[in-house]
Amino acid sequence: MNVILIMVDSLNRTYLSPYGADIQTPNFERLARRCATMERHWTGSMPTMPCRREVHAGIHEYLWRGWGPLEPFDVTLAQMSREKGQVAMLLTDCYHYFQEGSGNYHMDFTGWEFFRGHETDNWVTDPIDPPRIYHKMLEEKGEKGAAYMRNTARFRDERDFFGPRLLRRAAEWLDENHTHKNFFLMIDSFDVHEPFHVPPPYDRMYDPDFTGEWSIWNNYGPLDSFDAAVARHIRAQYMGKITMFDKWLGVVLDRIDRYGLWDNTLVMLTSDHGHHLGEHGWVGKNKAPFFTHLTNIPFFLSCPGMKPKPGSRSKMLTSQIDMYPTIAEALGLKIPKDYTVHGYSMLPALRGKVKKIRDIAHTGYFGMPVVVTDGRYALHKMPARPDNAPLCSYGINLEGFHKRSVNPYQKAMTGRFLPYTDAIVYKNPLRQLKSFEKETETGKDAQADLLFDLNVGDDISQDVYKKNPKIVARLTRELIKEFERIRAPAEQFMRLGLDEEG
Known about the structure:
Layout: E1 2-8, H1 26-34, E2 36-42, E3 45-46, H2 48-57, H3 77-83, E4 87-92, E5 111-114, H4 135-141, H5 143-152, H6 162-177, E6 183-189, E7 221-222, H7 228-258, E8 265-270, E9 276-277, E10 282-284, H8 292-295, E11 299-302, E12 313-319, H9 323-330, H10 347-350, E13 361-365, E14 370-373, E15 377-381, E16 392-395, H11 407-410, E17 413-415, E18 425-429, E19 450-453, H12 469-485, H13 490-495
Parallel strand pairs: 1-6, 1-8, 2-12, 3-13, 4-5, 4-6
Antiparallel strand pairs: 2-11, 7-10, 8-11, 9-10, 13-14, 14-15, 15-19, 16-18, 17-18
């Protein structure tokens, strides 16, 4: 069959009407009527590019390395699809695909198109007299904000903005390419990521009476660091961006309808992670604890012949790492026998051949807490020591987040350190770690593990760790078993105190 995968960056599912939000997303509702809406889909490696490596290459990223490009030993979906004679197309405005320290994911596709200008993409250089809407952003972001201003200052209506441009082109591509015998189309949108910048009517849609100053690209921080009216307006702009994206998503759905692609195509829409817009007293996404607004992400799925009926809701536990084997099976790709895949194909469960896909899912940022869930409970395993040690990064490409630097290699060792390849790689011990306590929103309580009952709702504010020692012990054992299965680095067991569990 064909595959259409739509990635929407930083999409908090509680802002979608199919997940219960009071927001105008009629095309997400339309998608939900055609799909199974997955209620227990979890992100794996966060944030943007670690998630992409999971999707493209099927490897959990966050236990071995932070942000980085594909490695030479990765076998990608696009590579296998092209070798099979299929058409693999990437349409994206996610500029990280093309930046130093993360770029090269696009190279295996038969074709790719990049829509320039989002966030700090180094694109337009024309001098600009800053319009008023950019003033507050420039105060907070400096040159980073100036890059975005130059890139977008000449936008005049919604058709100039990123999501509409990308989705309009995706619809055109389907017009031109729907007759291919098999194709893999990945539509990877950096929207609805900040800057939360939208044109009329979306800018006034959810907060029409606001008259104050605010930044279209706000800094992250505690909710109480923002004026209440500003915080409400930031949330309203995020909602406006989702509604604008929803409108143009409808153009893609029109093409899927027109060409009858539901009958021969695996259609999936998901995100890499959510975003806090004041939930749990936080605005942003990089601070622990990693609550469900960040980790329990939206996922809509339609597969020809699937047992869940279109319009149904599924409580099967799934993970972003399962995307790779699912897409590979749908396309009929032959994954090399000696290639390690960390996820499980969803197709047997969707076709009713098995009852479940996995027992647990786990997620995290490199070097930060790990969350493990069975779909009912979520256990947050914090670093066992205040210095968050020991920790090593592994790989051939360790330059980091858009930085050309020899620093990761100066004290690194070389050897066959990765369990999923015989390639000689670097092992870089990270000796100057920040105090983990300073990297969390919970301050002095940062070292305490947490347990949440997900049945109480999305706002999981009540820690039940002390009341449920058996559940904590069970989830801890399951996480250890999973780490052993994927042969996670020994220091990750030590860092999280898992080596002391018996």
